[in-house]
Amino acid sequence: MTTSPDPLDAPTAALAAAVLEVARHVEDGPLSSPRLFALARSAELMAASPSLAALLGADGDGTGAPDDLHLTPIDLDDGTATAVDPLSALASVQWPDLAAGGAIACDLAPTAWTVREEAGGRHLDAGRRLRVVVAALANGTTWSAVQRGDEDGYVLGAALLPEISSALIQTLTETG
After folding, report:
1. What are the CA-CA distances from residue 143 to residues 2, 65, 74, 121 (Å)?
2. DSSP three-state, residue 42
């Protein structure tokens, strides 16, 4: 049996894993406003916080620590979010210093956004919401997850929502 190579490079695969972690975190219930997540390099986060490293089973010498590319999503939601539009939420975000990237999770009306065809953009039902998670690294790498209505599973890919992906990258490069 021949195995095919992974189509994602290692940094994109780490970003994709973080997107899926955020998607699982927000999958229950509606999102009345966008939720923002800083994406921190896990190894740097543990180096900065030895107590966190110990809690997660990593030793002071790095044994048990995740690889250098692994990302830990940190929920920035403090319960005071008022923006319902993801671009408005991104316009006011202040990423923490440890952020190697960021992610936004929200529910969207499909008719209000451009969704690339890979995510089923041509076949969207105007009455069904989209649950989306869009993430980016400061270097411009993006990954997205789109779930239509009450369907199981996500469509995954780079920049499936181009406007949100571009705005997210812009916030990261302005502060980076």
Report:
1. 27, 24, 17, 16
2. helix
